[in-house]
Amino acid sequence: MTRARLLLLPLLLAACTPTPAPPVPGDDVPTVARATRPARPSCVLNPAWVSALGGPAGLMGVNLRAPLRAQATPSLFDQLLDVREAINGSYWGESGVDLQALHEQAETGARTAFGNLRAADLTAQTDAFMNDYVDGVRDGHTYFLDAAGFRAFRDSLSAAPTPTPRLGVRWAAVPGEDGAVLLDAFPEWPAAQAGLTRGDTLLSIGGQPLTRQPGDSDAAHAARLSTLLGQASAAGAPVTVTYRRAQAGAETTASTTVTPLVLSSAPLPYARTVAPGTVLLRLPTFATSGVAQQVHALIGGAQRAGATHLILDLRGNGGGLLSEAIGVAGALVGDRAGETIETLDGQDVTYAYRNGQVLAGVNCAPTSPVLGVGTPARWTGRLTILVNEGSASASEIVAQLAAQTGATLTGERSYGVGNTVTVIGAISGDRGLSVTIGRANDLRGQPLTPDVTPSPTTPDDQRALAHGHDLPLEAALK
């Protein structure tokens, strides 16, 4: 999820309107004091806030908080106050922005744009404003989610069924060309069952060509493709797909029939053999429970089959649950897997992998179980990690923990939030807010790095992929 945008709308509004409308009575958003980090308290296995969640096992499912105001019709005033309270009370990242000035500037811009804040209904326009406001923190882990985005996030946590039938793929518009190149065709889902695979380029669906319109940018082309693919899938009826496949230096065009289905919102990892003795383990997300269990099972199976080289593909994996990430890292680096999260309230949490379990401790050695793996595995062969600019958060944590113990990184520089931890929770209007609530250190007490950068880098070129060359994978196989 690429969220690195600047605060634009409030700045422009303030610049264009030298005398903003004054607040109406009761319309002033209350000032919220910025909390400060206390001296580290003594070891407490289950402080009150952890007990309220049901113990350490509930740590990874915690939302920032539920909305405090339960009006029948929440307003922009409520969202502005929610964001002030959440950021001033919880933010513990590395932004150099003056947060108090940001809040005041946003309030002024909101009143200029929308008038009486308590009377301002929540719309697509206020969502755009709030998005720019929160992006003004200038922290890639701190961002606003509109209603659809927040619903999708919650669905991914529980692997809830998708709202409408889907093909079961991830795709990207081919830069500068027609068509949609498949980044994933998940096993046992409709597209893969119909014979489609990563690198195939969809040229038409249901008789509708996926061609670039004259003058279209890549972004405009991608938006049009998203509409066409969504419309073709939504009814759940069989649909004919024409695709191009590049293989062994030749490109061929073929057609197949795909029947879209309602699927899980969070695909689990899968593995395939890509060369003698080499297994590619694709991990698309850490966002749902069961990821670590599946990774351990796949690694165990690869070892029993005699594999000596494991390629862990984290490209496009935007992160997810820290407990799952530490569980996955345990299969790669054993007891080196874990981290300590420094928080603004001083209740620092340590997670560590020990013998098939992820344990947690608050200002203590980790002893309380958070996650367990039924049949733990430990990879001991050659290990390569594939990353790109879409690899973020938990992906960056796993990649750098693996690199500390000798894994090879291949691909592009990652997104750049691997040294912090975020929590996503509800704010008024059924929107969501992600706030960076912690700075991450490894188990030796050393700060983790924001990104991981392979040396040398290999571009994850989607145009090359559409013509038969997965450049990072080819580099990993050399």
TrEMBL record:
GO BP term, pick one: proteolysis
Signal peptide: 1-21
Database matches in InterPro entries: ClpP/crotonase-like_dom_sf (IPR029045), PDZ_sf (IPR036034), Tail-specific_protease (IPR005151)
A GO MF term: serine-type peptidase activity
SUPFAM superfamilies xrefs: ClpP/crotonase (SSF52096), PDZ domain-like (SSF50156)
Cellular component terms (Gene Ontology): outer membrane-bounded periplasmic space
Region annotation (Disordered) ranges: 441-478
Coiled coil: none
UniProt domain Tail specific protease: residue ranges: 251-455
Keywords: Signal
Biased composition (Basic and acidic residues): 460-478
Biased composition (Low complexity): 449-459
Superkingdom: Bacteria
Pfam families: Peptidase_S41
Gene3D superfamilies (alphabetical): 2-enoyl-CoA Hydratase, Chain A, domain 1, 2.30.42.10
Name this protein carries in UniProt: Tail specific protease domain-containing protein
